[in-house]
Amino acid sequence: MPWGAVAGAVIGAVASNNAANKSSKASQKASDQSIAEQRREYDLARQDQMPWLQAGGWALGQQQAALNGDWSGFYNSPDYAYALDQMTRNADRSAAAHGALGSGGHQGDLAELYNGLALQNYNGYYGKLAGLSGTGQSAAQNLGQFGMQAANNISNAYQSAGAARASSYQQQGQNWAGLAQGLGNMYTYGKQSGWNWGG
Description:
Helix 1 runs antiparallel to helix 4 (about 105-195) and helix 3 packs antiparallel against helix 4. The protein contains four helices and no strands. The N and C termini lie close together (about 10 Å). Helices cover about 90% and strands about 0% of the residues. The chain is mainly alpha-helical.
């Protein structure tokens, strides 16, 4: 009879340990799935925000170039090129109508018109760049927030998995300690009671 009790205690401890292991593995699997989903969502958000981030970076580069004296982006911009073309055609037609096309006076008039046109259109050009670079800055901020949120969620998932694993180890340790204590108590009781351990 005592061996039956011993076998029952061992089987109970092993079954409890198996259950603790399964619980820990299930928690780890759930954490792994959560982490994978967080990473997937962040990657999608980054992919979705990338065109705005890149456009903003390009616009910021154009702003910096203009502020450093490189106006080629402005001179090649469609708005300025169109306005310049229309203004030049109108000035040429007017000069041709008066017989002054190609004259020094006509060339001076064009230079004055070009300067005025550049001053008039530059602020609009720079403002458009500022709006686009601001959109890129917003995209960068959004990505930073998405990244921090994903990192926090992933960290929490890792901590949950670690806590589940630690709890499993603790439960197994308690199971084995309880089994050892129970067996020790049973042996002591059996010795005092005169049990026949061989029967």
